[in-house]
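Chain and conformation:
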Amino acid sequence: MKILIGFVINPIAGMGGRVGLKGTDGVYKEAVKRGATPVAQEKAKEAINSFLTESDETNNVCWLTSGGSMGEDVLISCGINPTVVHQPSSNTDFTVEDTKKACKIFLNHNVDLIVFCGGDGTARDVVDVIKKKIPLLGIPSGVKMHSGVFGVTPAAAGKMIQRFVEETVSVGDVEIMDLDETLYRKGTWKIRLFATAKGIIEPTFVQVGKMSFATVDEEEIKQDIAEHIKDELENHPQVLFLFGAGGTIDFIAHHLGFENTLLGIDAVFNKNVVGTDLNEQDILGLIQKYKKVKIVISPIGAQGFILGRGNLQLSPRIIKKIGIDNIIVVSTPAKLRVTPVLRVDTGDSNLDEEFAGYEMMLVIIGYRVSRVVKIQQD
């Protein structure tokens, strides 16, 4: 019996990340104006090729999809002859309604699984239509991916399609999160549970939702980590430091007396802020000016991502220029207790493999105290 999979891509998902917009919802034209280019098709292609490589059941799958860049093009490029059941309203101006219409048609065809490529916004659009009627799986391509429906990487999502087809995984409730992008761009984190959906339950390849850590007991530990970073700045006055996003980094920056962009990338040289809320091109310009650069970042709790979630401004081009050895990872011990591995999803498979080749990374967990944490490649 054939397995029916509905496949849809949000072609503009993730475009706002590297140009510093922290998302693409409602600002697509601004992203294009800043030089953003599509990324979702390549992410989707990586996932489909992973499925084709892993599975012996590819002939038992029938793919239903939307036309052009919303799914058809990627499947054909991977050697799949899909059934196109929906055409987008425009080849250049994609809307939420295009995704929703495709999903309604998938429902009418009684598909067994919906695979979408996008971020949390796309997940919300899909769930708004299908509710809990059909299992779904997300190929990560957005800037924000905190919902529990995404594969940890595009390749991992492909493996999950394979396991679903071969009936070796279970289906259960997953959380779909809703982040206010307008407030997010202003540096305010306001996230809520949008809905629950049916998702694939597999903790190795499917990410869990972001966890929050806010305990008074950790304040002293964060101060110790901040003092360690202070020493780094004082001992390397000719090095440009890029401070990443997130609460831990924000605490460190404020402890050191810097105004920090909570959800962006800032630059500090010789204890002076020389750039705030930087996009990819801004950072590349600074790298040309300051020859020695280090990055200070912290993993997302429970998920373990240090690159590829919420900091797409730190693109593969930037990481290659700076070098993996110049990345400083910081975390509180409590966060590491539920973050057993570090992950990267840079968008460059060769660079991801280079990270994996390190096998372990040092994570600063106090003043001159570090812990070795495994890097996992999926």
In short: Residues 211-216 have pLDDT under 50 and may be disordered.
